[in-house]
């Protein structure tokens, strides 16, 4: 009995995470996060140019 409840809770958590990632979070957030390393490199280059 308890294993069935635990399985149902785990399945609901999985579905909630999938809904949050693919529906609520949205593509714009993922695109912004994907470009963070590139933005930091551009900022570092700008600092080096200003200091020289």
Could you explain how this protein is built, in words?
This protein has helices at residues 2-25, 27-34, 36-51. It has 52 residues and is mainly alpha-helical. It has one domain. The longest helix is centred in the first third of the chain and has 24 residues, at 2-25. The termini are far apart.
Please tell me what the overall shape is.
Answer: rod-shaped
Order of helices and strands: HHH
Helical content band: over 70%
The tally of structural domains comes to 1
Strand count, sense and barrel status of the largest sheet are: none
Unreliable stretches covering 5 or more consecutive residues: none
What is the strand content? under 5%
Structural class: mainly alpha
Instruction: Please give the alpha-carbon distance between the first and last residues.
Output: 70 Å
Total E-strand runs: 0
Oligomer: single chain
Number of helical regions: 3
The overall pLDDT average reads 82
**Rounded radius of gyration (Å):** 21 Å
What is the secondary structure topology, with strand pairs?
Elements: H1 2-25, H2 27-34, H3 36-51
Give the structure's gist in a few sentences.
With 52 residues, this protein is mainly alpha-helical.
Label this structure with key terms:
3 helices, 52 residues
């Amino acid at each position: 009995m308890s294993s069935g409840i635990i399985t149902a809770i785990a399945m609901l958590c999985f579905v909630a995470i999938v809904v949050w990632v693919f529906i609520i979070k949205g593509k714009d957030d993922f695109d912004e996060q994907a470009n963070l390393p590139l933005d930091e490199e551009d900022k570092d280059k700008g600092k080096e140019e200003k200091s020289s």
